[in-house]
Amino acid sequence: MKKAVVIGAGIGGLASAIRMAAKNYEVTVIEQEAYPGGKMSEIRTEDFRFDTGPSLLTLPHLVEELFTLVGEKAEDYLTIRKLDESCRYFYPEGKKVHAWTSPEKFSSELESKLGEPKENTLRYLKKAKRLYHFTADLFLFSSLHRMKTFRNRKAFGTLMRPGLLDPFRSLHQANRKSFQTKEVQQIFDRYATYNGSDPFRAPATLKIISHLEHNTGAFFPSGGMYKIASELHRLAARHGVTFRFNTRVNSLTTADGKVTGVEAGNMHVPADIVISDVDIHHFKRQFLNQEVRRREQPELSSSALIFFWGMNTNSKETGLHNILFSTNYMEEFRMLFSQSAISDDPTIYLYISSKMEANDAPPGKENWFVMVNAPADNGQNWDNLVERTRRHIIAKLESQLDMQIEKHIVVEKRLTPRDIEHRTSSEAGALYGSSSNNIFSAFMRHPNFSKQLKGLYFTGGSVHPGGGIPLCLASAKIVSDMIPKE
Ligand code: FAD
Predict the structure, then answer these.
(1) Over the stretch 115-174, which tens digit does the pLDDT of each residue have?
(2) Which residues form the Amine oxidase domain (predicted)?
(3) Domain contains 96
(4) Which residue has its alpha carbon closest to ligand 1 atom 34?
(5) What is the CA radius of gyration of the chain?
(6) Are residue 167 and residue 239 in the same domain, yes or no?
(7) Ligand 1 mean position to 352 CA, how many Å?
(8) Cβ proximity of 170 and 202 under 8 Å
(9) Cβ pair 3, 270 in contact under 8 A
(10) Is 249 close to ligand 1, i.e. is its CB under 6 Å away?
(11) Both 308 and 391 in a single domain?
(12) How far apart are the first and last CA of the chain?
């Protein structure tokens, strides 16, 4: 039986392990931390449970497919519910909008609350759907680094239709043309942040993300987002995958231009195939001894500053996902990407899983995950930045939700870009690897295979096709499609 080693038990690593087990490989996953999931993680403290990473799930069939591959049914272990409402939006001047996942209901809501003609939203979502169906096979589910990919008519046709891809203007420029109201433009600009990008620079191709949320739907697994990682871990283990936690892989072993295994702790683990789920910048530095100059790499995605607050109250106005928009969205992103700073009026994302999962907080209380976009770590004075941003967040929440905040916080934990890097070895704490702030971003991400060493493959958010749960799962699929069955 051939052996595969997976370095890292992030979502890309777990999916790759399951796929390799399904190909009859003997699989070992080696993870430096004590738990599976990487960025998809959780904390439990004083009767509160918090997801600490992803909070929104799209394309759940990519998770379910992993169960089917090994002859199991996802629904026996995971209950993934489709949400009626994907988000509640709060604007500085007091307007509020429910973003329903149904395009019909959502477009009516935008018309009645913000005055945006219904047909504008429906037309936009229809175009986004068309764009997704036109591009997904090529850009999300195939390697962009093999000639084979381009040798079929559909892929060629996709590249020959730049009008449909819409890469030459920014997402914001496209949204300004599509919608009359600034508020609706801001909602659709926000989708660039789903892969850590700047809507004022990222290509309009990113409108496909709105298709995922409003046409195919936003989902939530019972038990919270971390349940996905824990169930994938259990699935892999049931199908023979060996996990070694608290074990750091230090180097690769090679012979004749091919990987032969890894050195981890004080052992050598032999392998015919090595799949790395490690951030590619770290991988190059640590495993290939390559110097990585940040300025020569594609621009990193944004990171996040998150406060986890156990609240001894229930907020009436809020739902599972909430966004409190800033007044000047363009300035917010200029500060984030050009000044590596956080605006004094940041857009706040508030995720309260206890709205769906009663067990995530004691009765009468709520678990608030309060996040603002933050620059990737650049040596900023995080102590100052965290305290200052905390004050701004509290002032904004108090005025917009019309409730007192500070006196209701009974538990607090924090996560900064530095912490994210420390825990997951992600370059500068970037959440999604490199950003899509450049028209060529899709082609600049690292391939899913090594051009130097045979048998070495790459999965996860820092390589093609990019960050976010669905794309990490897609990267595992691309890797597995390249490796023959045993
Ligand atoms: P990672 O999660 O980066 O894990 C890599 C693993 O490799 C880690 O466990 C690390 O410990 C291990 N490792 C590294 N080096 C070594 C070594 N030398 N030896 C052994 N192990 C090693 N995505 C969404 O789809 N929706 C969201 O709502 C969303 N929100 C997010 C919010 C936050 C706060 C964060 C942090 C991320 C969010 N994301 C979201 C992004 C998503 O979480 C990531 O894209 C995805 O989880 C990354 O998975 P990965 O496979 O790249 O591995």
Answers:
(1) 999 999 999 999 999 999 988 888 888 888 887 777 777 777 777 777 788 889 999 999
(2) 11-481
(3) no
(4) 53
(5) 22
(6) no
(7) 21
(8) yes
(9) yes
(10) yes
(11) yes
(12) 7
